[in-house]
Specification:
- There is one protein chain.
- By secondary structure, the protein is mainly alpha-helical.
- The protein folds into two domains: about 55 residues; about 70 residues, no CATH class.
- Helix content is about 75%, strand content about 0%.
- Helix 2 runs parallel beside helix 4 and helix 3 runs antiparallel to helix 4.
- The longest helix has about 55 residues.
Length: about 130
Amino acid sequence: MYNELINVNMIIEQAEQGLIISQQLIKAIKSIAHKQEAQQADIDDAKSKAQQAYDSICINDEEQAELHSIKDKKIADICRGRSFKPGIYLYSDYWKFINKTCGVSTYKKIKRKDFKKAKLAALSWKPKWLQ
């Protein structure tokens, strides 16, 4: 009977040690999870700041040249077969349409995020007198 009591006490001791180890593991896991959440919050914040920075960048020279190229082609197409040459009013009408579509005062201020919208507007532009 004495040996059985010793065995029971040893089992209880081992169970208590196992419980302590389990509690320590749970605490460590919770700590790691908290650190991961904090890191994810930092990553999300960095992504947000990067997106804000990208959104504030204006179109570059190549994108400006692309809008000019579209303008030149559109105006050449409009003037083809007509007895007049393009005047300032056509160019002005084109840029006013693009700028209004993108909400800027000059095409050089078009934001990179709005370039696709500007390009679609440029491709769909027609002078007011042709509509």
